[in-house]
Write a structure and sequence with these properties.
One of its GO terms (cellular component) is cytosol. GO terms for molecular function: purine nucleosidase activity; uridine nucleosidase activity. This is Inosine/uridine-preferring nucleoside hydrolase domain-containing protein. The chain is α/β, with parallel strands linked by helices and about 300 residues long. It is about 35% helix and about 20% strand. It has an 8-stranded mixed β-sheet, sandwiched between helices. The protein is globular. The mean pLDDT is about 95. It binds beta-D-ribofuranose and calcium ion.
Length: about 300
C-alpha cells in the first residue's frame, strides 16, 4: 500500500475521505491524520477527525493537531455549509482515543525524513497551512515527498467561496502558493472534478442500504451537507469533494486531466486564491501539477459504497 498522511479540516466530505482511506488498507496505509483549521476552527477539526476514526473502528489511528490559523490571514470558516460542529448531521459520540501530543507540522516533517525518499504521499483536503509550514520549517522534505494529491482550486468551474476561488485555496492562498512552488509532484482534484461527484438521492440511498453504523452516519452527513447546494444552486445533491483525493489513489483511472502550470493569486482582492491554470499552454511557465478535469462518477460511487461497506 501507498503510505499517506491525510491533512484535513473535517468537514463531512473530509470525514467520508477518511472513512474511504481507512476502509482501503490494501491500497493506502494511513500513517497519520493531521488536522488544520478550515471548515471550522482547529479544536473541532481535530476532534472530528478522532470521531471519524472511532466510527471507522480504527481508534489506533494517529491524529495530530496542526495550525490554527492561515500563514498571514484571518481564518475564514464554512459553518454555513458544514454546520456549527463541522460534522452536523449524525449524532456521534465524543472520541475517547487520544490526540497525539506532537504538532502536526513536526509529524509531517519527521515522517518524511524517517521514511525512504519518495515513499510518503501527502493528501491535503483542507487549507494548505500545515503543509506550507512544514515546507518552510524543513525545506529538505520537498524532495522526499512522493506526491501531493490535494483537493482544491477550480478552473472551468471557477469558485465556491468567491466567484473565482475555491475554499481550501482561498483560506490560505500564501500557503497554497508555497505548496505549488515546492517542486514535488502534485495532483489536483479541483471543483471541476468534485462538482461532478454529486451524492444524488439514489446514491445516498445505496450508502444507507449498507445498513451499518458507518453507512447510516455517512447518509446523514451528506443529507446535511447537501441542503446547502440544493437550496443555493438547485443542485441534484452535494458534491463529495474530498473523497476524490483518496479515490484517485485507489483507482486513478476514474480521473482524467492534464499536466500543466498552475499559479495561485495572492494579491488581487477580486480574484484572491484563484488557481490560474494554464490549461491551453499559453504561457512558457513550466508545468507544476496534474490538474484533473473529469471523473467517472458512477465508478467513483460504486467504489465508495463498496468500501464503506467494509467498515
Ligand atoms: C473544500 O472546502 C471544504 O468546505 C470541503 O471540505 C472541501 O475540502 C471544497 O471547496
Ligand atoms: Ca475539507
Amino acid at each position: 500500500p501507498r503510505k499517506i498522511i491525510i491533512d484535513t479540516d473535517p468537514g463531512q466530505d473530509d470525514a467520508v475521505a477518511i472513512l474511504l482511506a481507512l476502509a482501503s488498507p490494501e491500497e493506502v496505509e494511513v500513517l497519520g491524520i493531521t488536522a488544520v483549521a478550515g471548515n471550522v476552527p482547529l479544536p473541532m477539526t481535530q476532534k472530528n477527525a478522532r470521531i471519524i476514526c472511532e466510527l471507522a473502528g480504527k481508534p489506533d489511528t494517529l491524529v495530530f493537531a496542526g495550525c490554527d490559523a492561515p500563514l498571514s490571514r484571518k481564518l475564514v470558516t464554512a459553518e454555513l455549509v458544514h454546520g456549527k460542529t463541522g460534522l452536523d448531521g449524525p449524532t456521534l459520540p465524543d472520541p475517547t482515543m487520544p490526540l497525539q501530543e506532537q504538532h502536526a507540522v513536526d509529524f509531517i516533517i519527521e515522517t518524511l525524513r524517517r521514511n525512504d525518499p519518495q515513499t510518503v504521499t501527502l493528501c491535503p483536503i483542507g487549507p494548505l497551512t500545515n503543509i506550507a509550514t512544514a515546507l518552510e520549517k524543513a525545506p529538505d522534505i520537498a524532495s522526499r515527498i512522493q506526491e501531493i494529491v490535494l483537493m482544491g482550486g477550480a478552473y472551468f468551474e471557477v469558485g465556491n467561496i468567491t466567484p473565482t476561488a475555491e475554499f481550501n485555496i482561498y483560506v490560505d492562498p500564501e500557503a497554497a502558493k508555497k505548496v505549488f512552488a515546492c517542486g514535488a509532484p502534485i495532483t489536483v482534484l479541483p471543483l471541476d472534478v468534485t462538482h461532478a461527484a454529486l451524492v444524488t438521492t439514489k446514491r445516498n440511498a445505496a450508502i444507507r442500504a449498507l445498513n451499518t453504523p458507518v453507512g447510516e452516519a455517512v447518509a446523514q452527513m451528506t443529507e446535511f451537507f447537501e441542503r446547502f447546494d440544493r437550496e443555493k444552486y438547485g443542485s441534484d445533491g452535494a458534491p463529495l469533494h474530498d473523497p476524490c483525493v483518496i479515490a484517485y489513489l485507489i483507482q486513478p483511472d476514474l480521473f482524467t486531466g492534464r499536466h500543466i502550470n498552475v499559479e495561485i493569486e495572492t494579491v488581487s482582492e477580486l480574484t484572491l486564491g484563484m488557481t490560474v491554470a494554464d490549461w491551453w499552454g499559453v504561457t512558457d511557465r513550466a508545468p507544476n501539477s496534474t490538474f484533473m478535469r473529469a471523473i467517472q462518477a458512477e465508478g467513483f460511487f460504486a467504489l465508495l459504497t463498496e468500501r464503506l461497506g467494509r467498515l
